[in-house]
# Entry
Amino acid sequence: MEAQIVTIGEELLSGATLDTNSRFLAETLHRFGIRVRKIVTVGDELEGIVRALREAAQGAELVLVTGGLGPTPDDRTREAAAEAFDLRLLLHEDYLRELKEKFAAWGLTFTETDEAQAQLPEGAEIIPNPLGLCGFRLQVRGCHLFFFPGVPKELRSMVQGTLIPFLSERSGGETVLVRLLKCFGPTESQVKELLEGLSGPFELAFLPSFPEIHLRLTVRGGTPEEAAGHLSAYEAEIRRRLGLHLFGSGDDTMEKVVGQLLRERGATIATAESCTGGLVAHRITEVPGSSDYFQGGVVSYSEEAKRRFLGVPREVLRRFGAVSAPCAEAMAKGVRERFGTTFGVSTTGVAGPTGGTPEHPVGTVFIGMAVGDRVEVKRYRFFGDRSQVKLMASEVALDRVRRFLLRNPDFRP
# Structure
């Protein structure tokens, strides 16, 4: 089975909204061994939607459509589906009743405009949506079409309840197992060199996700037990070759992995940030339960703040400047002492696009890590725009803690 994805909405074409739905749908289809032939994005114009639906249905056995199911005049997906396949728009009485019940439960007044949402193409089946308004599905000339709302949270819930059971029934019994592995440190070409010669009945896709590199490992065929065995064996070999560069899998993030290690060791951390502006602390606190190990942070953007809140000596700033190894060392040491933590991490540098000098060009960042009485500072040169430099610096700061803990398995506070 081959599939196409059609996403609808002017906000997608203008860049106002990032299309995360296509990626989610494509990943879901991949798990079932279904190849996505094309992903198309169209605006709210009726003619464009009609054309996209017709072309998709002619070129694939499965078409997934998102967006354009709301009550406003620019939500025209229902009308377009009817026109594309020469179907009448009919009032779906069961859906109308459900709409009225939902509006009442939400404390909203149901109007004639809202009733238009119950007008569906002839032969359409309702796709339940526990989080909002329903979608629908059609079968036209051997093609299965699923129409979902564009809200990602609602889409994912509906896919779980409707599309995945549909795909499971039609997968033909083929076992497809997928594992997403995540690494940080080497470049894509360096990762390929480390994995050179690795072969077998599997697929390995490189998925750069700045500042990381993700690897999608896919195994097909055999019984579920056989496929799981192959997947585990290939994953183990990849982990062996990449070593500490590989930091997680699945939905792991660098901050989540670091948090797990800190919690396991009974360790704590505090941050002292200048050029990253609190990004390291923000990422740490994105993980639920991070209060177990994160004590606090200081965003010391000015020299005065570095002196006042972190105890950076005036002489250090006078002799070496704020963008320097001695300053990063004093920041890491100062924040660890003030918060009484196991680790103190610091960042100071030039995020750009201005402020660089011949000695410290844009992208220069000093990152310090204090552990006990030891402080280690490294100088880095990152490339990219301001946000990329900040993100890269935050990733390295977290990765430094991760690698220290993994290299010292017996370390305890």
Summary: The chain has three domains: 2-169, 176-249, 254-407.
